[in-house]
Design brief:
The protein has 334 residues and is of the alpha/beta class. The protein is built from 17 helices and 8 strands. Strands 1-2-3-4-5-6-7-8 form an 8-stranded parallel β-sheet. Strand 5 (185-190), helix 10 and strand 6 form a beta-alpha-beta unit. The chain binds zinc ion. Residues 9, 11, 161, 189, 212, 270 line the site of zinc ion. Substrate binds at residue 271. It holds the Pfam family A_deaminase.
């Protein structure tokens, strides 16, 4: 049995496996420029951020109907359940779909077909987080929030993702203020490839409650002290960091030093179809490459539930934490 865990950094568009991409392409009459799943899987071995993003947006063309989004989310939930995920807070990128003429309603209601039945079908509780593309304008983010207003009963919070450098958090101050006024929770990617100041800005200007990635906080001791003192969760994605060359190898990953510093770290998969593995694969990889002890792995799992947006269901959070405390490790974690 895998270690029970919550996944807090997961882009649903990044869970599109080659087999499902071809299935949806056939269903929708979309032509993919690959001979088959083997050739497409070969393309998933990209070398840098830009080639990843090019492929990522190219493949989104197969996602057109509510059922497509439902099938995408359902396939993720099935894989996540097999790797011990008990709770998932799932990012989606509406601007990437709106730009293709796919409506907010199609995306949200489609995802909800899977999320609304996730507990009975997969034993996973879920939350949905709408992400703005930070390389798009602040006005576009605002229009996206407006388009989401009819669906806010389905959406727990907002996030900020895509190419970080040159797009500081402060660009999105106004839309984060508006989202806060609507009662939405706030997270943002910061300090993955961008500098530590972006993390500080996300906290001070956007009022984020969690920082996605946040790796580069380690360059600023005062910031580390603040994150530890305020118990700000960081959603780390080790296999993603290796694939996008944020770290050279997994053995160089700062996760052990971050835990030693007292940071509230969690381990997540980011875009698992592209980065070499789902949540449990990430746990297994850091256990193997970084020599994390069972106590550390249990701490990471506990952190994932502590950092989750389960304030409206503390009874459930307590149940998950009890599962983590009672977990007995075998050799084949995680
Ligand atoms: Zn991400």
């Amino acid at each position: 049995m895998p270690l029970p865990k919550a996944e807090l950094h997961l882009h649903v568009e990044g869970t599109l496996e080659p087999e499902l991409a071809f299935e949806l392409a056939a269903r929708n009459g979309v032509e993919l420029p690959y001979a088959g799943t083997d050739e497409l899987r070969e393309a998933y071995r990209f070398e840098d951020l830009q080639s990843f993003l090019d492929l990522y947006y190219e493949l989104m063309a197969v996602l057109l109907t509510e059922q497509d989004f439902a099938d995408l989310a359902d396939a993720y939930l099935a894989r996540a359940a097999a790797q011990g995920v008990r709770h998932a807070e799932i990012f989606f990128d509406p601007q990437a779909h709106l730009a293709r003429g796919v409506s907010m309603g199609t995306v949200v209601e489609g995802l909800w077909r899977a999320l609304g039945r996730s507990e009975e079908n997969h034993g996973i509780s879920t939350r949905l987080i709408l992400c703005f593309l930070r390389d798009e304008s602040a006005e576009s983010a605002f229009e996206t929030l407006e388009a989401a207003r009819p669906y806010l009963d389905r959406i727990t919070g907002i996030g900020l993702d895509s190419a970080e450098v040159g797009h500081p958090p402060a660009k999105f101050r106004r839309v984060y203020e508006a989202a806060a006024a609507l009662g939405l929770r706030r997270v943002a990617h910061a300090g993955e490839e961008g500098p530590p100041q972006y993390i500080t800005e996300a906290l001070d200007v956007l009022g984020v409650e969690r920082v996605d990635h946040g790796l580069r906080c380690m360059e600023d001791p005062a910031l580390v002290e603040r994150l530890v003192r305020d118990r700000v969760p960081l959603t780390l994605c080790p296999l993603s960091n290796v694939r996008l060359r944020t770290v050279d190898t997994l053995a160089d990953h700062p996760l052990p030093a971050m835990l030693d510093a007292g940071l509230l770290c969690t381990v997540n998969s980011d875009d698992p179809a592209y980065f070499g593995g789902y949540a449990g694969d990430n746990f297994a990889a850091v256990r193997r490459s970084l020599g994390l002890t069972e106590d550390r792995l249990r701490e990471l799992a506990r952190n994932s539930f502590l950092a989750s947006f389960l304030e409206d269901d503390e009874e459930r959070r307590a149940r998950y934490l009890a599962e983590v405390a009672a977990y007995e490790f075998g050799d084949a974690v995680s």
